[in-house]
Amino acid sequence: MLNLEQLNAFVAAAEKGSFSAAARHIGKSQSSVSIGVNNLELDLGVNLFDRSTKYPTLTQQGERLYQQAKVIIRQANRMENYAQGTIEEVEDELVIAVDPLVPMSVFDFALEKMAQAFPFTRIKLVKLFGDELNRALVEQTANLGFNIASDAIPENLDFVTITQVEWVCVCSPDSKFADMEMVDNEMLITERQITCTSMLQHKLLKNSALVSQETWEASDQDDMIRLVEQDLGWAFLPKSMLDEKLAIGTISQFTPEFNRAKMYSAIDLIWKSNSPKGPAMSFIVDQMQG
Questions:
Q1: Domain co-membership, 140 together with 284
Q2: How many Å apart are CA 31 and CA 33, to the nearest integer?
Q3: What are the transmembrane regions (predicted)?
């Protein structure tokens, strides 16, 4: 029967080039590595290494079995990690509700770290508008929510403000707005503005960010950006979504008369009050507050 210690010794010897280097790598004695490899060869009935040279080299059969041994070790490690996660009551799945106006850049780093710390926890991201998002958290069809702050948070939800998003006015480099030091309100009112459904449904943004008498409504902010790049209108968007576009020059930022100072919106991380947080959920909350 295959032995994981023997497989670890075999893989270490193959990768480090000698039994002594393998022993140092896995914290064993050289003799235990040598014996482990010898016993594995006896169990398999093949020579894994050619020992006629100064340093042992993999035989043809050894090369093929080395690849299989790595797969077996990885699977064994996954089983151990999964079993440990079960003992610690790590969540199988987390549903995270995200307001369409919240850029992924706000929380993607936390998901990346969580994926490393809890590799067996599945993440499901769902796009929900403000009231829908709060309702999903109350009804526990979602575990966490990222929302643009608007009205008061319902009493049965806890929240923490994690960051602020800066909003800017942008246009195509070909637009007449691109070369203007400041664009007056009259011009903004008469030129087509690109909006999206989530902005028009937001209780605060629909009043502060809707300026023009002529609008096109896109499905989301990514589509807004594409329409602006095609010089089909100007838009009001989170700057964090535009950094790359601004850097390469496919979009230009301009200063509007109605808002010469910078405008920010707070981003809240929300969850249901008095509901238990598992290790993975707690990890994300801690990352966002850190």
A1: yes
A2: 5
A3: none
